[in-house]
Amino acid sequence: MSEDNSSRHAVDVSEAQIAVHWREEAYFSPSNRFIAQANLTDPGVFERFSLDKFPECFKEFADLLDWSKYWETTLDASNPPFWRWFVGGRINACHNCVDRHLAKHKNKTAIHFVPEPESEAVQHLTYQELFVRVNELAALLRDFCGLKAGDRVTLHMPMVAELPITMLACARLGVIHSQVFSGFSGKACGSRISDSESRVLITMDAYHRAGQLLDHKEKADIAVVAAAEDGHRVDKVLIWQRYPGKTSSPTKLVPGRDVVINELLATYRGQRVDPVQLPAEAPLFLMYTSGTTGRPKGCQHSIGGYLAYVTWTSKYIQDIHPEDVYWCMADIGWITGHSYIVYGPLALAASSVVFEGVPTHPDAGRPWRIAESLDVNIFHTSPTAIRALRRNGPDEPTKYQHHFKHMTTVGEPIEPEVWKWYHRVVGKGEAVIVDTWWQTETGGFLCSTVPGIHPMKPGSAGPGIPGIHPVIYDDEGVELPIGSGRAGNICIRNPWPGAFQTIWKDPERYVRQYYARYCRDPNSKDWRDWPYLAGDGAVQAADGYYRILGRIDDVINVAGHRLGTKEIESAALLVPEVVEAAVVPVADEIKGKVPDLYVSLKPGLAASAEIANKISASVVSEIGAIARPRHVIIVPDMPKTRSGKIMRRVLAAISNGQDPGDVSTLANPEVVDTIKGLAK
Ligand code: WTA
């Protein structure tokens, strides 16, 4: 049995198990006004994308793009589960997101950059300006760094216009970018640099977050050291200045290694670089994410399949028209930002907003002021942000003259009460809402209502989108019938163009973790035998809508950010006093879930606030502040089975104020009451 499958059995608690189950909700209908303008209103689309039309139906996706050489084979599925889409085609992602729009849209805003300080003016970058800046940077990356197609570059950049510019400059050259969320620590960045073997790190000296100008350059220095500890050398660190011409970080430049990009760019003024046309299956980027085992894994996404997928879904699920102003409040450091701030919207020539700051800073009216002033009409965010905005300013949206035709929620299950506030107050009852369920691995949406076709149901994502055929299996691999009311493991029956191609340098883990579980025959060459395991629990209602319950593995979804419990535990174990560590998810009113960290210490050591703080600091330095445990609870011993396994289920029950159930079969049942007392 595979390592990941067996680790599944070792997990005693899953988010699904402690998920709150809510009752069936009534439907909400999209307005006639929305339907009248929607890109997709023909229910016949589902017939067009039925399984018997697979895979040729996906031609419609590819045809939204410009191909320098048109592809020959829609899907080469001869080597499952390594799917190759649009084989024979050659394409460049940057050309599709920038150059091809110049003829009609060169004067249109591509990116509205909204700095966090309200005193700073919004920057509006036209498609022409984007073209110029991307070309100059591509020339620098090629000529100064010697980068070429297939090389990897790590980006550790905040939410600034330079981030999409850098991504597109890489894409222009066929250089594979790996953007690491700016909130991740220098060490976390370093391990991603070494795994991807990037010789170049691109970062920014500082950025604004919740009223502070944070020193970000210091993380680059830590990252380079961390990579060196893995035996990997970084040759160049390119640093954007948050304020060109001014240094905003006290951390000094390292001579011979560090270069200020905006200064060096002067040498490349006016240069043009032809987009490098690459095979459709060449990688576009890596996105590291947490999984069931310790180390984050680099999900590899293709140029052709990925771009076709995010473009189609942006057009028909996000309902983006060229005249729309679209704002996705996610961070580009996550997959949502890659697919639905940068690649999808720009491939459609939309205007996409990049916001540097925190939505509730300086107050919960900030997003609505931005929406009003830029006349944003499509808005996209996470349940965590919606919950925070609702708590901090339940009436704020009513004070502003913004009007959304469309809103998205993504990343976590949304409670129906929160959904209704989003609809009634933020959306003023006018906007349609799509609750989109998907993952880093899937490139784009999997389940959602089609906004011009389906009614909405608060708390439910909806059916599979056109071309996606989900199925729920129980643990034995038996399909749960529609409307059974039973929870199981949601899978996708068929490959789709947005699916990641492999885990960087670890194809075995890719097969094991996503396809081995329900594979009908490991030797089969038929894609029908290889359902994709998403790693979420779900129920399907009688109307076909899916409700996602949460992870079935040891991943915790904190404020929509995916964290591996194993990563947090490993960080705790780096503290010399700690001998055992166990992380459990705790329900949180705003963030959905937060981690509680239980630890036991070396014999003879007494618990102290100092040790607890040291453990917490280790988690922040290894991963980042987003992983900081709610509580570090130092216990005399972990609750264990007779075979010595830590019973996380018991710890999770205690942390969530629930009854841990029958603990009499534990090796040390007496410890449970002690832990209950400590966790209070
Ligand atoms: C969860 C984010 C409920 C799910 C795009 C998934 C959701 C994980 C939803 C992926 C949703 C995402 N409703 N849960 N609409 N969307 N999730 O890779 O557990 O950061 O497996 O991708 O987020 O997180 P990731």
Structure, explained:
This protein is α/β, with parallel strands linked by helices and 680 residues long. It has 22 helices and 30 strands. The protein has an eight-stranded mixed beta sheet with strand order 12-11-8-6-7-14-15-23, with helices on both faces. It has a seven-stranded mixed beta sheet with strand order 5-4-17-16-18-19-20, sandwiched between helices. β1 and β2 form a beta hairpin. α10 packs across α11, α13 (304-316) packs across α14 and α21 runs parallel beside α22 (671-679). It starts with a helix and ends with a helix. Residues 1-21 have low confidence and may be disordered.
Structural class: alpha/beta
Shape: globular
Give the beta-strand count. Answer: 30
Radius of gyration: 24 Å
Tally of DSSP helical segments = 22
If you average the pLDDT, what whole number results?
Answer: 94
Report the bound ligands by name, code or SMILES.
Answer: 5'-O-[(S)-ethoxy(hydroxy)phosphoryl]adenosine
Q: Any chance you could write out the topology, listing elements then pairs?
A:
Blueprint: H1 3-10, H2 15-18, H3 32-37, H4 45-48, H5 59-62, E1 73-76, E2 84-87, E3 90-91, H6 93-97, H7 102-105, E4 109-114, E5 123-126, H8 127-143, E6 152-156, H9 162-173, E7 176-179, H10 186-196, E8 200-204, E9 206-209, E10 212-215, H11 217-229, E11 236-240, E12 258-260, H12 261-264, E13 278-279, E14 283-289, E15 297-302, H13 304-316, E16 325-328, H14 335-347, E17 351-355, H15 366-374, E18 378-381, H16 383-392, E19 406-410, H17 416-426, E20 432-436, E21 470-473, E22 488-492, E23 502-503, H18 507-514, E24 532-540, E25 546-551, E26 555-558, E27 561-564, H19 565-573, E28 578-588, E29 592-601, H20 609-622, E30 632-634, H21 648-655, H22 671-679
Parallel strand pairs: 4-17, 6-7, 6-8, 7-14, 8-11, 11-12, 16-17, 16-18, 18-19, 19-20, 29-30
Antiparallel strand pairs: 1-2, 3-13, 4-5, 9-10, 14-15, 15-23, 21-22, 22-24, 24-25, 26-27, 28-29
The chain binds 5'-O-[(S)-ethoxy(hydroxy)phosphoryl]adenosine (WTA).
